[in-house]
């Protein structure tokens, strides 16, 4: 499968390999990340990915982390600093 990345303590996202191992389970790994902290699939503007359901429908992009995103809006400045 394509489109997977894993994140380790170094902290760098690395391309990963993945396989389906159960009804609702994936095994995702990268030789460059011996102790993964997070995984993402199809997490890009124009992702190249191929994870599908049994019915052949594309699975929506996924992520296991809750890291702050660079596209998140900035919190408003305190009233005294405006």
Properties at a glance:
four-stranded antiparallel sheet, mainly beta, 82 residues, two-stranded antiparallel ribbon, single chain
Topology:
Layout: E1 4-7, E2 13-15, E3 17-22, E4 25-29, E5 38-41, E6 62-63
Distance separating the two termini: 49 Å
User: Main β-sheet: number of strands, strand sense, barrel status?
Assistant: 4 strands, antiparallel
Low-confidence stretches: none
Task: Please trace the helix and strand order, writing H or E for each element.
Answer: EEEEEE
Structural account:
The chain has 82 residues and is mainly beta. It has one domain (1-61). Helix content is 0%, strand content 29%. The strands form 2 sheets. The protein has a 4-stranded antiparallel beta sheet, with no helix packed on it. A two-stranded antiparallel ribbon has the order 3-4. A hairpin with a 2-residue loop joins β3 (17-22) and β4. The radius of gyration is 16 Å and the shape is globular. The model has no long low-confidence stretch (mean pLDDT 87).
């Amino acid at each position: 499968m394509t489109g997977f990345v894993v994140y380790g303590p170094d902290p760098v996202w690395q391309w990963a390999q993945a396989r389906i191992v159960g009804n609702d389970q994936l095994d995702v790994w990268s030789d460059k990340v011996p102790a993964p902290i997070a995984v993402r699939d199809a997490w890009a503007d124009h992702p190249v990915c191929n994870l599908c359901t049994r019915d052949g429908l594309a699975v929506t992009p996924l992520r296991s982390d809750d890291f702050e995103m660079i596209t998140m809006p900035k919190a408003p400045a305190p009233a005294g600093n405006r």
